[in-house]
Design goal:
DNA Binding (I), subunit A, mainly alpha
């Protein structure tokens, strides 16, 4: 029996349904922004073109995985769960963004009020 190629209206609907159900976090790298659906069990290994066998993935991650098993993929591509240093402050205190003011909202006050411009040693 010959399998249909992945594509067309059915694939487009399944990708849309997959992203709606599971979100846009790539199941292969853990980052946001997934735009494709990856077959958990690859089609070449008998995996079905059904929602239960699909998970969100970046196009590049999906192509790099190819038809590897998930065990083989994660053995050579572990998901990094350590946040980058630039985000550590936010993740350690989820409410920090509410106390942290934006540089654009900073308005200096009392500039020049009650001060006198004097030169020393002049």
């Amino acid at each position: 029996m010959t399998r249909r190629k992945w594509g067309g209206a059915l694939a487009a609907r399944l990708v849309t349904d997959c992203l709606a159900r599971y979100g846009r976090r790539c199941h292969l790298c853990g980052r946001m922004g997934a735009t494709t659906a990856d077959h958990v069990i690859p089609r070449s290994r008998g995996g079905a073109d059904e929602l239960f066998n699909l998970r969100p993935a970046h196009r590049r991650c999906n192509q790099r995985r190819s038809d590897q098993t998930l065990a083989k993929w994660f053995a050579s591509n572990p998901i990094n769960t350590t946040p980058p240093a630039s985000r550590a402050w936010f993740l350690s205190d989820p409410n920090a963004h509410q106390r942290r003011s934006s540089p654009l909202s900073f308005r200096p006050t009392n500039i020049g009020v009650g001060t006198q411009n004097t030169q020393v040693g002049g």
